[in-house]
């Protein structure tokens, strides 16, 4: 539509008014873009892809730090708040009228329409820094799982006699190379099939992890753990406090997905209203995810008690059956390859959009080269997209190689992005959109919610930073063997 000029856009708009009073035509939506085809199921698969990540495997450790009472309560609390604020955010996809209002294609667009001013820049900085951080975290986590496959086979071959130390760099490089190939998928809405595959992988390794801890409980015949978590004596008082904060970081990361919620919603077809479909998808996805989190976290704690590993499938709470561990860790790697792209597509699109607007006459940036692929539709190769996305993958891979293989990094990333993107901006946009008066009962309740989770986020970030500092003491970039 953009290449056809304003006249043709106007003509299509007139046709949509005559034939379809609610906006759009058979080929185009009410904004002149090609008809969106996303459904409740594709939106749900995108959300599950973003939510049920490898963070689920650290929830047993997190529960062990908090105990049988606080652990499940904290998970349910984050689940409820994530659901509630996500519904507030979904209502901001259109400005004004939720059915016929102007579309906001990205999270930043929603903030610009509802809040404007300096908050737009703050939102963009937080969102895209968080996306960049997630890319690094996923690269580190994927390499841990790839190493776990190699190590489990090494242990099996040597009968546990070989310590099986290895360097993580080749695995990070391999993940980066695969990512470069997948990153050339040009449009976010073409990733629906990838999200479904990734969602299946999520359930695969989560189910295997859950099955193994059930088997462990059945083997020992008892449920381990305590009401208050790991006891002082096993760890010092200060370690108990910092570990509890780190556990919050792990749980926060497990529920972080709001930064791409608007982009997911922009793939939905209408009618019914996008916000209506999205709210159903949020309820279903968050509900299913919370069930998995509770089962894996609680049953993992029941199996191992205070000795719960930081990662159920790579911390070697299990050694056998080694082939099942290999399947689970392979599923994690496949999941992270896909989830990396789902998360990074908004960042890719943002940079490419800004660059195209700034240099509209540059063929390097705007021109597509059609490449014929037998049996498939032609692929549009854009040289700028090829260079920029490849450079992004190279940079994130190099930074990952400079950091220790630590779950605390993942927890820190989750903590830094959770409050502003999952709580603060959705609450502020809702207040602005509904014109809620200052100091009214609803306004006070929303502000209390925001402040409470700001405090929790600061605590989680502090715990994760403490963990990273400890890991850095024994880490040497590019040379440390694990």
Automatic annotation (TrEMBL):
Subcellular location field: Membrane
Signal peptide as annotated in the record: none
Pfam name, any one: Aa_trans
Amino acid transporter transmembrane domain segment(s): 37-470
InterPro entries: AA_transpt_TM (IPR013057)
Record keywords, A-Z: Amino-acid transport, Membrane, Transmembrane, Transmembrane helix, Transport
Domain of life: Eukaryota
Residue stretches spanning the membrane: 40-61, 73-96, 128-149, 169-185, 191-215, 281-302, 322-343, 386-403, 409-431, 443-470
Keyword Transmembrane: yes
Official protein name in the record: Amino acid transporter transmembrane domain-containing protein
């Amino acid at each position: 539509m953009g290449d056809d000029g304003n006249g043709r856009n106007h003509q299509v708009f007139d046709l949509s008014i005559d034939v379809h009073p609610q906006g759009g035509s058979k080929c185009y939506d009410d904004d002149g873009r090609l008809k969106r085809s996303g459904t409740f199921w594709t939106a749900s698969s995108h959300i599950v892809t973003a939510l049920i990540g490898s963070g689920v495997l650290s929830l047993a450790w997190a529960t062990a730090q908090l105990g049988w009472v606080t652990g499940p309560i904290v998970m349910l609390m984050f689940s409820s708040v994530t659901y509630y604020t996500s519904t507030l955010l979904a209502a901001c996809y259109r400005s004004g009228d939720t059915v016929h209002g102007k579309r906001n294609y990205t999270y930043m667009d929603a903030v610009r329409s509802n809040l404007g001013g300096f908050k737009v820049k703050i939102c963009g900085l937080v969102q895209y820094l968080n996306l960049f951080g997630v890319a690094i975290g996923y690269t580190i986590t994927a390499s841990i799982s790839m190493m776990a496959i190699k190590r489990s086979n090494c242990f099996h071959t040597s009968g546990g006699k070989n310590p099986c130390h290895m360097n993580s760099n080749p695995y990070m490089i391999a993940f980066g190379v695969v990512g470069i190939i997948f990153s050339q998928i040009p449009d976010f809405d073409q990733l629906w099939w990838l999200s479904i595959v990734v969602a299946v992988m999520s359930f695969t390794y989560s189910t295997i992890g859950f099955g193994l801890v059930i088997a462990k409980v059945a083997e020992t015949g008892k449920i381990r753990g305590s009401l208050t978590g790991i006891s002082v004596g096993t760890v010092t008082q200060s370690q108990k406090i910092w570990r509890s904060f780190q556990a919050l970081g792990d749980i926060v990361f497990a529920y972080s997905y709001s930064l791409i919620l608007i982009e997911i919603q922009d793939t939905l077809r209408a009618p019914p209203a996008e916000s209506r479909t999205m709210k159903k998808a949020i309820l279903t996805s968050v509900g299913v995810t919370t069930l998995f989190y509770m089962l894996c976290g609680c049953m993992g704690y029941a199996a191992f008690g205070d000795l719960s590993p930081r990662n159920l499938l790579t911390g070697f709470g299990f050694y056998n059956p080694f082939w099942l561990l290999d399947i689970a860790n392979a599923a994690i790697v496949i999941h992270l390859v896909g989830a990396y792209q789902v998360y990074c597509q908004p960042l890719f699109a943002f940079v490419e959009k800004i660059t195209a607007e700034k240099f509209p006459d540059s063929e390097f940036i705007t021109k597509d080269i059609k490449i014929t692929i037998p049996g498939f539709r032609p692929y549009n190769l854009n040289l700028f997209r090829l260079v920029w996305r490849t450079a992004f993958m190279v940079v994130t891979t190099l930074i990952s190689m400079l950091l220790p293989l630590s779950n605390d990094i993942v927890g820190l990333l989750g903590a830094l992005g959770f409050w502003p993107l999952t709580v603060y901006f959705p609450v502020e946009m809702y207040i602005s959109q509904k014109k809620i008066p200052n100091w009214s009962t609803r306004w006070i309740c929303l502000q209390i919610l925001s402040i409470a989770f700001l405090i929790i986020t600061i605590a989680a970030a502090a715990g994760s930073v403490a963990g990273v500092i400890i890991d850095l003491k024994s880490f040497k970039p590019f040379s440390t063997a694990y």
